[in-house]
Specification:
With about 290 residues, the protein is α/β, with parallel strands linked by helices. It has nine helices and twelve strands. The chain has an eight-stranded parallel barrel with strand order 1-2-4-6-7-8-9-12. Helix 2 packs across helix 3 and helix 5 packs parallel to helix 6.
Length: about 290
């Protein structure tokens, strides 16, 4: 009986480990262009072997970086990912100064800015759909939400109206992510994210383990308040850089995947053991974009 119990425990642990990487997020950086096709193929094969069925690409345009466009290194790498059986949720356009700009905007300015950025992402969506020659399961909007910039309910209502219009113009489901900085109560934030999910948007909440902005018990409280429709992103890194420095982090095991009824994903590919070539390539570069989801 003891042997059967141990076997059952082992199978449970293995199942949970596999589930951790069912959906894996990849943040493209220009340093990744140095990987060979063989290295990319090995990364995608290993991702599938670890249980991944979906790759969420954070962006396909970052500021003035387009990663080579339809015939560039990113598009070629993602075609290899598809060949290995991975479904693709494609990221849209990200303003490199997004976080600095939303810090300085009042409510009217934020509404105008978001409208302009959504327009750019819609143009990018059409470009990727028409030119990249990839089967696409969904679209990821890389402009993250947090409970500091959207503390005011009027801002949240504005955002909801804009996202409803934007998602209705897409030809596949929209994905977006959020994180907590402790400004909204867990129940209030859960209600806000549930309202966004009610627009047929897949909302992802980052568990915050990598950046550690909040104590672990506080993060757990936010997670516990989330309805089942909200996905949880487990951060597979620990930040080593300080505020104001170029982002640096070390790999770390993602938190337990016993997330109950929630969809789960892992951030980010380069911090997983089989993504090491991406991390090594990044370290050879002088700086990188922030690693927020």
């Amino acid at each position: 009986m003891r042997a059967l119990w141990l076997l059952a425990c082992l199978l449970f642990v293995c199942a949970q480990t596999a589930r951790a990487d069912e959906r894996i997020i990849y943040q493209p950086l220009n340093s990744d262009m140095h990987l060979s096709q063989g290295q990319w193929r090995q990364i995608w094969q290993a991702s599938v072997e670890q249980g991944a069925h979906t790759l969420i690409v954070q962006w396909t345009a970052y500021g003035d970086q387009t990663f080579g466009g339809a015939d560039g290194w990113l598009a070629r790498a993602l075609r290899l990912a598809h060949e290995q059986g991975l479904k693709l949720v494609m990221g849209l356009s990200m303003d490199a100064a997004y976080y600095q700009r939303i810090d300085r905007l009042d409510s009217a300015g934020l509404a105008s800015y978001w409208g302009a950025q959504l327009g750019q992402s819609l143009a990018q969506q059409r470009h990727v759909r028409q030119q990249w020659n990839l089967p696409i399961e969904g679209w990821y909007l890389p402009m993250e939400l947090d409970d500091f910039h959207f503390l005011d309910s009027a801002r949240r209502d504005m955002l909801q109206r804009q996202l409803k219009t934007f998602s209705g113009q897409l030809d596949a489901p929209l994905h977006i992510s959020a994180f907590s900085v402790g400004k909204l109560a867990p129940g209030v934030q859960a209600q806000w994210l549930a309202q966004l999910a009610g627009l047929n948007i897949q909302v992802w909440w980052q568990d915050g383990a990598g950046t550690a902005r909040l104590p672990a018990l506080v993060r757990q409280g936010y997670a516990a308040a989330l309805p089942c429709t909200i996905g949880i992103v487990h951060e597979a890194f620990r930040q080593t850089s300080k505020q104001g420095q170029p982002f640096r982090a070390r790999p770390a095991a993602p938190a337990s995947t016993a997330s109950g009824c929630h969809p789960v994903a892992v951030f980010e590919l380069r911090y997983r053991p089989w993504g090491r070539p991406l991390l090594e390539s990044q370290r050879s570069e002088p700086a990188a974009p922030p690693a927020n989801l």
